[in-house]
Structure formats: C-alpha cells, structure tokens
Amino acid sequence: MATGSKPHIDYADIKDLTDEIRFQSNEGKIWFGEQRILLMQVTALAAFRRELVNSIGVERAKGFFMRLGYQGGLRDAELARRLRPNASLMDIFWAGPQFHSLKGMVKSVPMEVDIDHETGHFYGELEWVDSWEVEVVQTELGQMDEPACWSLLGYACAYTSSLMGREIIFREVSCRGCGDERCLIIGKPAEEWEDAEEFSKYFTAEPIIEELYNLQNQVNSLRSSLARQQGQYYGIGQSAAYKDACIKIDKAAQGKVSVLLLGETGVGKEVIARSVHLRSQRANQPFVAVNCAAIPQELIEAELFGVEKGAFTGATQSRPGRFERANGGTIFLDEVVELTPRAQAALLRVLQEGELEHVGGIQTHVVNVRVIAATNECLKDAVNEGRFRADLYYRLNVFPVKIPPLRDRLDDLPLLVEHFLNKFHSDYSKRTLGLSDRAWGFLKSYAWPGNIRELENVIERGVILTDNNESISLQSLFAAAVPELAVEGEPDDHVFSEGQVVKSSTKHSTNWIDNIFEDQVSLDEVEKILMERAMAKAKNNISGAARLLGLTRPALAYRLKKYEKDNES
C-alpha cells in the first residue's frame, strides 16, 4: 500500500538518533551506533575536492564523491532499520534525511514522496537546503556547469535502494551550485530512468592511472593560457549583476566613446576603468588615473591641463598636465563631480575639440585621449543643483554603467576573498589556512558598506594577525570590534561531557531544566559541570570563574576543594 504525498519531516523528534552518538574523547573515538565517525572541517573537504577535480577531472571526482556518499547511505540504512524495527517504511525512510541533518550535511524538505513496499513503487521529490557541497563549490571552485551535490546524491541512492530492496536512482534536477535557485532531487526506480545504466557507472570504481599524465598536461596547458590572459579581464566576479556590467563595458571598450562609471565608493571603478583600457586599441598607450577629490581646487586645472611658468605663485616652470601625459591613451577621472566650474569648461573643450591650453598659456595643445569618468553620486542631481554643467554631463553620459555594490553580488565573495588572500599571502610571505567557518558565515551576512575596498582591508588585517598554518578568525578580521548583525542565529546543539547531544536553549528559556530531569542528572553533577565550565571559560582563574557563577571567590574555592575531596574518597 502506497503512503506519502507531501509529508512532513519532524527534525525535532530524533532522540532515537541522537542517543546513538557517544564521544569517547579519552579514546580518540566518536561512535554513531556501532559506526565510528569523524568530525571534519568542511574547509578540509573543500580543499580535497578542489585538488581531486584538478588532478583527475570533474567526472572522475564526481564518481569518487558519489561512491563515498553511497557507502555512507548503505550503513545508515542498516542503522535506521535497527533503530526503528516496528516503524512504517516511511518513518524508516525519514531517518535518512534526519541523519543528513544531524551530521550537518543538508536539510531535506519533502515535496512529494510515495512508497509502496509491496509493489516496490517509489517516487520521491525533495528540496535540499544549505547543502555542504554547494558551500564547498561556492568557496573553492566557483559556479559549476552541472549539479554539485555528489556525495549527497550517492547517499540518497544507496539509502533508498537498501530500504526498498531494489535499485532506486535519485537525480539532482536543479542545483544552487550551478546557478539554480534551489537544489531539487527526484528519485524513482532505475528502470524508469532512460540513462540508468550510464548513471550507475558512477558507483563503479575505475582505474585512472592511465589518464593522469594526459590530465596533467591539460592542466599545465590551461595554466599557461590563463597566465597569458592575466590582466585582460574585468576584475573578479561571476555573479549575474557583475557580469551584466562587464558585458556593457565590453561593448564599449573597442570604441572611442566616453564611459561614465557609476557606483558607491569602493566598488572597484578604477579596476573596471583599467580593464576598459586594456581591452581597447589603446592598451599599449598610457593609462592615467586621477582622483579629482584629492587635488586642491585651486590646483585642479594645472594638474589636469598643465601650467606655464609664472602663471601663479609657485609655478616656477612650465609642465604638462595629466591629459598630455595620457595622450594616445586613456585618462580616468574619479569623482569627476568635484571639478571646479573652470575645470569643467576646460574638460568640455577637450571632449568636443580634442585640444587644451595650459593655465597661464595661450598656445593650443592637441590631445587624443579617451575619457573614463566615475562618480559615487548622481550627476543629474548635481546638474539640477547647479554644481555640474549640463552640457558636460551629456558628453560624459554617452555610455553610463552602474557597478553593483558588494552586498548585491555576494556570490562573488569567495572569488574576491581568494584573490585577496593570495595577494596578501605573497605580500607578507605567509600562508594561512583561509577563513574559519564562523568567519565565512559572517562575511556572507555582512552588509559591506565599504564594498570591495573594505573587504580588501579586512582580509589584509586578518592575514597580518594570523600566524602561518592557522585559520583566520572572525576576531582577526574585525580586530577592533566585530560588527553586529541584525538577526541573531539559532542556538547551536552542544555535547555534555557524558557524550549526549543536547539542544541549547535561548537566554531566557528554561527548557534546559527539562533536559536535566529527562537525563536524570543529579544536583551535584549539575554543580560540578557548571564549575568545570566556568573554570575553563575563565582559564582556571578562580576569581573570574566566581564572577561568572555569581559567587564570591571563597565560596567557589570551598566548593572546588570539596569536589576534589569527593573525588579522592
């Protein structure tokens, strides 16, 4: 008899599963039922996955991880049957997603599941939320061309096949790792898939030694090709918002048209401007960048257009301006809105006529310069306020491009972080292990008001404060004070010293009391645990631990001494 159709997974009621977890710290072992398991950093698996892909190719690496997940699914199916011997097949099936959630791999949300053990019918449609493999892809490999949840898929196939007693194949029909909005899997008997035989080959190990040399040669060739192209791209980014801006820039790069870059401070406008220059026919000519806001207003004309000797006090000799230095190439005028009215008039002449005059001079100088301007405020508003010439605005606004802020392109964060880590590892001759998981989580939630420039500064600070072969902590990134996020996260699960996984409670909740009664923990044991935790948090400083517990130092010292005597007796 078939059961299912949009069921619900109860992730709260998994005590039968959590009771199977035991920590034997003194023995260096963790047990899940009768299976020895490991706690391993996702970053370590991410690095391994990247190296495997680079060494043996995507298809071979995919097969490896699918087989890894497959073995885990087989063993968990065995454990689920033992733990729920009298449960329905549906309840036993739900143990698989619960196992995944408990292990921190993914959360499964059922869309539709139908099971009939008598006929062997199975159909499952589930959404995967926060897949660890998607996180790995985003931090280490970037967006892929195909679904990325390999080990999770292998697990689902093995787990369900073991329960049903027949081959069930799950396919990932959409995946966030390749740019889709969500991770969605569909499972059904193998014979209902047209390519079942081809897909099943992923679960069969194949010798690869014969292909390694060819693959290595391909890798070396690709690296050489990338090295030749270095500097010929528009910054760093693969997000849709950033790619859209780059497509517009690419179309303008080959022409002579003036480009107006719009965006907040720190979004990388100068990087974009340099890329336009490198893509243009002027690539071998000078590129001159000018921050108009950093030059005193009384000197801006002389700096841009040159000055004749004696034009003003301090002009002891004639010298060319930035436009003449950029002749034949490109000039980048950042914060162009800060130009004085006279400088705006001179710039308009350059754009219209291709000529200028030095300050204090009468001779006309012909220049051939492409102008790329940038501003972090609305030039139209500046025109309306009378601070910027309307005719100059229309000359500059021929090809406007909006550069998105970092908060709108967080998908590019892994690429940018990797870039800055490599840069500062080289600058400071050190090699960290990258960002901690907590640091990564914060960076993805942070608003980044200073955009890419702020990110660069944060990463540099983290590299400086972190020793070799250590992970960069959140505190190292924000050394002064960690900015607060608007939303607090849910409390994490923790482990008592006895080895049981217990749900942490919020600050004002009293659910922990029920846990104590349920686990039959004595009052003396509670006091002991509290004192141990306080002493550990205070680094064995009795006064500090006493403050945490709301006791006087003598009172805590007395209790600790009593506890030591009880242990000796």
Low-confidence stretches: 227-233, 486-491
**Reading side by side through the largest sheet, how are the strands ordered?**
1-5-6-8-7
Number of strands: 17
**Net shape:** extended
Structural class: alpha/beta
Please report which band the strand proportion falls in: under 5%, 5-15%, 15-25%, 25-35%, 35-45% or over 45%: 5-15%
In the CATH scheme, the class of the largest domain would be Alpha Beta
Radius of gyration: 32 Å
Helix content: 40-55%
Characterize the structure shown.
With 569 residues, the chain is of the alpha/beta class. The protein folds into 4 domains: 207 residues, Muramoyl-pentapeptide Carboxypeptidase, domain 2 (2-Layer Sandwich), CATH 3.30.1380.20; 165 residues, 3-Layer(aba) Sandwich (Rossmann fold), CATH 3.40.50; 71 residues, Helicase, Ruva Protein, domain 3 (Orthogonal Bundle); 76 residues, Arc Repressor Mutant, subunit A (Orthogonal Bundle). 46% of the residues lie in helices and 14% in strands. The strands form 5 sheets. A 5-stranded antiparallel sheet has the order 1-5-6-8-7, covered by helices on one side. The longest helix is centred in the first third of the chain and has 26 residues.
Features:
569 residues; alpha/beta; Muramoyl-pentapeptide Carboxypeptidase, domain 2; Rossmann fold; Helicase, Ruva Protein, domain 3; five-stranded antiparallel β-sheet; 17 strands
Would you kindly provide a brief summary of this structure?
With 569 residues, the chain is an alpha/beta fold. Helix content is 46%, strand content 14%. The chain has 4 domains: 3-209, Muramoyl-pentapeptide Carboxypeptidase, domain 2, CATH 3.30.1380.20; 240-404, Rossmann fold, CATH 3.40.50.300; 407-477, Helicase, Ruva Protein, domain 3, CATH 1.10.8.60; 493-568, Arc Repressor Mutant, subunit A (Orthogonal Bundle), CATH 1.10.10.
